[in-house]
């Protein structure tokens, strides 16, 4: 993890206005329910990077400290109240905020698709309500912002010094490399 964070920091130093980290997630429009969905399935696309680095949220991100100020003092109170209500979605709110300000997507580092916490007894994402709450958060934040600032990207910053292993069924994402 230390090598990974060193690489993340190097990428962030070149992209200080973005959320830089891992793992990536994306949002998608649900035609059946006419609303936004939060998705953590393997995909070439991402529009969010998880910011949590607790035993239950195995992810990590670098952001400029100014965004933490904006999150606390500029982000609409309704968004922060929803995060407090669910005890969830702070990473989605931060990605909304940064993408709204910069009009740029986050940068994912590393080739990993998932991160497991072997010493953790229970993960937040194992709760039945976790994904439903995250769907609701994206739709609620969209209402508050008046639009969805999240931007999709396929860009990933990887060190050429590390061997990239892409799942066989996902290699189509990178067929032109």
Describe the overall structure.
This protein has 177 residues and is an alpha/beta fold. The chain has a single domain (2-174), classed as Spore Coat Polysaccharide Biosynthesis Protein SpsA, Chain A (Alpha-Beta Complex), CATH 3.90.550. It is built from five helices and nine strands. The chain has helices at residues 2-14, 65-73, 77-86, 90-102, 130-145, and strands at residues 20-22, 24-30, 35-39, 48-49, 53-54, 57-58, 60-62, 107-109, 156-157. The strands form three sheets. Strands 7-1-8-9 form a four-stranded mixed sheet, with helices on one face. Strands 3-2-4 form a three-stranded antiparallel sheet. The chain has a two-stranded antiparallel sheet with strand order 5-6. The longest helix is centred in the last third of the chain and has 16 residues, at 130-145. The chain is globular. The model has no long low-confidence stretch (mean pLDDT 81). Its main location: endoplasmic reticulum. One of its GO terms (molecular function) is glycosyltransferase activity. This is Glycosyl transferase 64 domain-containing protein. InterPro entries: Exostosin (IPR004263), GT64_dom (IPR015338), Nucleotide-diphossugar_trans (IPR029044). Belongs to the glycosyltransferase 47 family.
Layout of helices and strands:
Blueprint (H helix, E strand, L loop, with lengths): L1 H13 L5 E3 L1 E7 L4 E5 L8 E2 L3 E2 L2 E2 L1 E3 L2 H9 L3 H10 L3 H13 L4 E3 L20 H16 L10 E2 L20
Parallel strand pairs: 1-8, 8-9
Antiparallel strand pairs: 1-7, 2-3, 2-4, 5-6
């Amino acid at each position: 993890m230390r090598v990974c964070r060193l690489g993340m920091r190097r990428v962030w130093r070149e992209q200080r206005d973005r959320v830089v980290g891992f793992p990536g997630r994306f949002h998608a429009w649900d035609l059946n329910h006419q609303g936004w969905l939060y998705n953590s399935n393997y995909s070439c696309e991402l529009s969010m990077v998880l910011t949590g680095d607790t035993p239950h949220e195995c992810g990590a991100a670098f952001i400029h400290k100014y965004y933490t100020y904006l999150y606390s003092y500029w982000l609409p109170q309704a968004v922060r109240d929803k995060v407090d209500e669910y005890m969830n979605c702070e990473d989605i709110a931060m990605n909304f905020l940064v993408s709204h300000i910069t009009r740029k997507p986050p940068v994912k580092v590393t080739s990993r698709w998932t991160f497991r916490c072997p010493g953790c007894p229970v993960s937040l994402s194992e709760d039945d309500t976790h994904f439903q709450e995250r769907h609701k958060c994206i739709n609620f934040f969209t209402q508050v912002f008046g639009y969805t600032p999240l931007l999709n990207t396929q860009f990933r910053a990887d060190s050429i010094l590390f061997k990239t292993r892409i799942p066989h069924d996902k290699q189509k994402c990178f067929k032109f490399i």
